[in-house]
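Progress report, Aim 2. The chain analyzed during this reporting quarter is listed below.
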Amino acid sequence: MQKVLVPMFVAAGAVLAPSALWAQAPSDAERYAWAPHMMWWGGGWAMIFGPLFMILFLAVLIAAVVLLVRWVGGPWQSTAPPHHTPPGRTPLDILKERFARGEIDKDEFEERRRVLGE
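Predicted structure tokens for the chain:
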């Protein structure tokens, strides 16, 4: 029985000895007190980067959600009809405007007017 107890007491001493030494060590309470070197760069002015990074993170997150919704939704389809001339403008009116702006010459104007008249 003594052969079993001796190693147990030695093991218990090895475990408890460091904690006993730690209990007698000087307190580190002053180590955690406020000091000018706290938060780097003297006084913590660098804490302004926290809110800036939060805003940046939210902007990136919102942009990613918008792009994801657009990608999943497919191409945007307009409810408006395809491009048509406004009421009251005939193809001949458009042809006359193009001729007046100089986009087409007289021969082309006459040929297209003849085609439209048929």
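Residues 87-118 form one domain. The chain has four helices and no strands. These observations will guide the mutagenesis work planned for the next reporting period.
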